[in-house]
Amino acid sequence: MAWDMTKCRWGVPANFTNTDAENAVRNANFSASVYVNISSAQQMTKQAYCFYEFGGFRICVVGHVHRDSNQQWTIAGNSFIPGWAGWDMTTPANQVTVIGGLQAGGAFPGDDRYPHPL
């Protein structure tokens, strides 16, 4: 994969790989998410945005979870990094638990969801 430089106008961490993206998702602190929302249509998807530091940059990590038949947030969706084009992974089980327990709120990071130098 590669960074989408039409969106990542503040630069990107050098030598970033899919393995780095996977590690960012696995190690992200979703309990410190800056924005959590629930889809408005059927309210079956919750997504959380948090920041993670890598290679002198702050990147955003987004995790998705879905409701099960009992309306609990137990089903893994996909996680991704805005600007890291064409890549996603299944949200890890430990992150599903964290994201599932979060309350909706915060402020959508807008363009700040793309890499920023520290």
Any descriptors?
118 residues, alpha+beta, two-stranded antiparallel sheet, 2 helices, globular
Task: Report on this structure.
The chain has two helices and nine strands, in the order E-H-E-E-E-E-E-E-H-E-E. Helix content is 15%, strand content 36%. The strands form two sheets. Strands 2, 3, 4, 5, 7, 8 and 9 form a seven-stranded antiparallel β-sheet that branches. A two-stranded antiparallel sheet has the order 1-6. The model has no long low-confidence stretch (mean pLDDT 96). The chain has one domain (2-117). By secondary structure, it is α+β, with helices and mostly antiparallel strands.
Described by the principal axes of the CA atoms, the overall outline is globular
Total strands: the figure is 9
Radius of gyration: 14 Å
User: How much helicity do the residues have?
Assistant: 10-25%
Order of helices and strands: EHEEEEEEHEE
Tell me about the biggest sheet? 7 strands, antiparallel
Give the secondary structure arrangement, pairings included.
Elements: E1 2-3, H1 18-27, E2 35-38, E3 45-54, E4 57-67, E5 73-80, E6 84-85, E7 89-90, H2 93-100, E8 105-106, E9 116-117
Antiparallel strand pairs: 1-6, 2-3, 2-8, 3-4, 4-5, 4-9, 5-7
